Automatic annotation (TrEMBL):
Residues 523-533 have a biased composition (Acidic residues). GO terms for molecular function: ATP binding; hydrolase activity; RNA binding; RNA helicase activity. InterPro entries: DEAD/DEAH_box_helicase_dom (IPR011545), Helicase_ATP-bd (IPR014001), Helicase_C-like (IPR001650), P-loop_NTPase (IPR027417), RNA-helicase_DEAD-box_CS (IPR000629). Belongs to the DEAD box helicase family. The keyword Nucleotide-binding applies. Residues 116-127 have a biased composition (Basic and acidic residues). RNA helicase. The gene is DBP6. Residues 1-52, 101-136, 503-541 are annotated as: Disordered. This is ATP-dependent RNA helicase. The keyword Hydrolase applies. Keywords: ATP-binding, Helicase, Hydrolase, Nucleotide-binding, RNA-binding. SUPFAM superfamilies: P-loop containing nucleoside triphosphate hydrolases. PANTHER family: RNA HELICASE.
Amino acid sequence: MASPFYNRYIPPQAKSPDLSDPSRPTKKRKKSKSAPPISSQQTKPREKSPEIAALNCYNDGDAQVGSIGNEAVDHHVAIRNRHKSMLDKYDKAAKKSAELADERTVAAEDDEGERQEDAIDVEEHGLEPLPQPAPAKEDRKISAFSALPEWLQAPKLVKSTDTVPFEELSLRRDTLTALGKKGYSAAFAIQSAVLPMLLPGPKQHSGDICISAATGSGKTLAYTLPMVQSLREKPVTRLRGLIVVPTRELVNQVRESLDLCSAGSGLKIATAVGSKPLKEEQELLVEKGQRYDPEAYKAEQEKEIDEDEELMDWDFDKKFGSNDYLELFYNHVVVYTSRIDILICTPGRLVEHIQSTTGFTLEHVQWLVIDEADRLLDESFQQWIDVVLPGLEYVRPPDALHPSRSNTSHLFRRREVRKIILSATMTRDISKLMTLNLKRPKFVVLEGGSQKLANEEEDSPIADEGGRVEVPSTLKEYGVPISEHSTQDKPLYLIELLETKSNPPVSKRRRSSTIPADKSEASDSDTSSDSDDGSQNSDLLSKSDRISNLAAAGADPTSHGTLVFTESNEQAVRLARLLALLRPSWQIGTLTKSTAGSSGRKTLAAFRKRKLSILIASDRASRGLDIPDLAQVVNYDMPKSATSYVHRVGRTARAGKAGEAITLVLHNQGKWFWKDRSGIVKSDVLVRGPDKRVGRRNLAINMSEEERGNYEKALQTLGEEANG
Ligand SMILES: Nc1ncnc2c1ncn2[C@@H]1O[C@H](COP(=O)(O)OP(=O)(O)OP(=O)(O)O)[C@@H](O)[C@H]1O
């Protein structure tokens, strides 16, 4: 039988695509017309080697065997036997090779088929990455990964342009008249959004409200107006409105707003800040009287008092002022009634009254306002909440009003108080907000001109979780770099600024003894300098340039005064003294912790009335203070955070008016101020309008020998005074 080996052609091995071949066109996958498909290549007969030819000759010669002699046949058989094993092996190898070639051909055909399909609609590309579709935009409003509850994640957003006339806000006619007299015709955006939520009507929200709105956006009226309108109808005087703010100055300011809204209402409003002796304040808050009540009197007499324990716990002088029991008529008991409807206070003083003023109770409180809430929820402040909140959660039965009958706590009934929580830098720290035990809370956020972050890059998680902070859109911001070699001249930079600003608070005539005017002011240039401290970038302008720059800055002729912030009370006092030594004619005031109280109030009033042109203050003045038409804020010392910066600079550019904020930037603060995401210019949390930038204002201090001598003498005097 003929061996298949002899009868078949072994096809030449089709060259399969070598995947490891770097020359293989990996990207250029378009079908090449010149290269025929591998499957269609002709398989040519393999050339027979001489050896195979010889073997075939044996095979082919089967038919001839008979004609050849036996000897010859034997010879052939011998040869064939001798080569049989070798031929078998060859046969097997050829068979395997043929199978392999078949497989490769099939694979090559499949591959080519795919290539042809691809070639139909695939464009030719180089080695550059293929363009990818833009990633789908994430809806940042509600994130499945955020730990925030939904009410914080999806706030009610208020556009700064959405304002309505007060007439449309269901306010009483006399309130409208009072607002009109003050020159307020339309409600600001945050007021337009919040008032309907707090006043009776279809949009009223029956829960608590957290408000985040820029400095100077009018948050105070947003709660004083509805609170007054709601409480004025009540016939009996009881403490029903409680407003807590962090500083005495703010207490007085809120008082002014309440006085405006409550004119003619008969509501009694008081403040508690610790500026008066406690006893005096107690008498203002609570009235002591007696009531005929034989039953209660008898119970009182029979009540067993563990005197030792009571005496240890009670401070009679503080608690009662005088001995109540001796003054009592027969069959009468002591009763305390509130003298006020609304109390505005600092948290420390509030706690003192809760703990020490007999008859002072929060049980009738219906409105609790916490202004500058992020500050008041800070760890350093927070303990007051633990004292205040329990007093707001329950109503005591009438008997429990008397201190000796406080064992009726099991009769207490749960009640609801409307809570309004506000700040320009409202926290979204849920652990802090939870301490307030909010009910059905709603988060209202005032959007500014832009919701873009200052760094104009992707939204950051910090901003999402911590809340963004709007810089007033009418504010112009600048940084003044102070080089390493000029650090000791920092007070002179301040003087230079004050004397050259657009609406100088002080006469420039005095400058003849200090700095040549031509070299003092420089451009309001962009933040483009590479130098962190700007010391390499003193591109001084000519005098005419300076004047045109200042005119372009749009100085508001009605604005007035400069508020200078220092890092501490001591620094404020020292700086004020140094300025007084160097510029004795300037009208300078200080507002620090030590000047709080009546002297601080007088200083602030004088500044507001323009009797002072410069107010030097510590950070206690950074929150909430409203100085209408303040022209300028100067951060003499760098604020500690972007939040602190926002509150400081927010003392100007309020209520839509123009304002300017200038920060002195020492060389070692430059990186943080200009470049860090935790800093000011590229901040992760500050939001500025689309074309708002922090300008770089370069100043140069050029002093004569005499001026330098005066400066050093003033520093020496300051040092001597400090050392006593
Ligand atoms: N509807 C209004 N029309 C005109 N002026 C208003 C109106 N509402 C408030 N103002 C004025 O705007 C200024 C800023 O208001 P307010 O002090 O309430 O701001 P704020 O949002 O509490 O600021 P901050 O966060 O700094 O405490 C005040 O001088 C206030 O009298």
